[in-house]
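As described in the Methods, two query proteins were run sequentially through the folding procedure within a single session, without resetting any intermediate state between them. The first query and its resulting structure tokens are shown here.
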Amino acid sequence: MPDQNAADPTTTDPVDPADTAAAAAAAAAAFQAERRYLGAVAYRLLGSVADAEDVLQDAWLRWQSADRSDVADPRAYLTTVVTRLCYDQLGSARARREAYVGEWLPEPVLTAAGTAAPAEPAELAELGEQVSVAMLAVMEQLTPAERAAFVLHDVFAVGFDEIAPALERSPEATRQLASRARRRIRDGGRRGPVDPAEHHRVVAAFTSAATGGDLAALLSLLDPEVAWHADGGGIVNAVRRPVLGALHVSRLLRKLTTRWIDAEHPLLPAVVNGEPGAVWYAAPGTVGGVMAFTVENGLITAAYVMVNPEKLGHLREL
């Protein structure tokens, strides 16, 4: 006769609510500890603040539902999750950007204005540190796999052994992806190093001349082969292809200084993605546009003008 006091093997011990709450709190704390890092990874992979925030939300949901008992390194695990989410999104984003009206430029991050406090919450401000708009624009030429391998290895020092599973490649193949990306970025990037003080001086002179409508001074700051890139997204009137050459760009500047910028709507110095840039307001509290610059040998060699309001909504007044 069976023992009535024996435990029923088909039943399980009830889950202690306190244990569940403790596990949930630990999961939240682990994710929060890596959130800024993960956001920086996602922003560099996607070039979009909004898309990076969406990826973080998806990563959090997956982290909540995952079996975390075997996760020895939350950062490595979450980096893989975020990379896969971004990798999938980059494939569809490329198709959307091919149908985009005009040139697609990354969403800017205002990290500071002059000596003022950061213009973004600390977490968002950190997204843009040390990754210029110019670099993000160049990375648009990479394949999703090249971009992921380059960003993770060269920017965040993640080993190829860790990157490979996220891209479903071998470590050696991942190494080759990063190498190709490095060459393409080198070919499409600056011709030489830039002095931060010189960059600041040139941009400050540009903002002053633009606000004052001094076209001669503006022209003196342009490299003869300067490239002007603008992103209005078909919402705001902007050139749809890069404009090349100082003479052609100076004509655009004439329109800029008569249409958008004047004494009541000055072009203000700002730190855009960690480098000297500029911002102006269409109305109090509403950013009208953001400018980022590449400066070499004391001259502006490239300007990136973001006026698509859908890419500026996350920015606060300085």
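Immediately afterward, the second query was submitted; its sequence and tokens are:
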Amino acid sequence: MIRLHAQNNHGRRLGLKRRAVLAGFAAFGLGAALRPAAAQTIAVPDGFLTLSQFLTGRASLDPHHAALVHEGLSLREPALDTKAEQLLAFMQGRGIGPEVLQGALEDAGSDLASLPPLIVRAWYIGVVGEGPSAFCITFESSLMHQVVADRLMPPSLCYGPPGSWSAPPGAAGVP
């Protein structure tokens, strides 16, 4: 039997059996192998991701953040993926950019007109919905913080419910 030796603080040798060392390596390796599986994000439909890149003006969007935005918006808009594909087709069919998209949707009387503001708000502010039914899906990783990241550091927490920062002091229950 092979014995590995180490010394404790008092200079005494500690005997470690090869099996114990191998079991430790195996346990460590198993834990390391499982970590990436736990960290995987949910797949986001290509149409939604393409639309998000177009509307936000970002060529690259964080996959984890994309999964949060997609999941949050899907709760409010059950036909999100279908509408995202329809919106992409609308833009490509007319050859329009994001700066004129909203006006074109409203001029056409499209029922898709409410979708671009929802998506942009979710990405930039991290909030889905409006008023008392709004909920926060992300805060620190919202795009609003990336826009000013060269000068400002985002706070690490929300100070209240979505939009509470806009109320005068004391009105939102803040002293």
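The first strand starts at residue 3 and ends at 7. We note this only descriptively and draw no conclusion about the first query from it.
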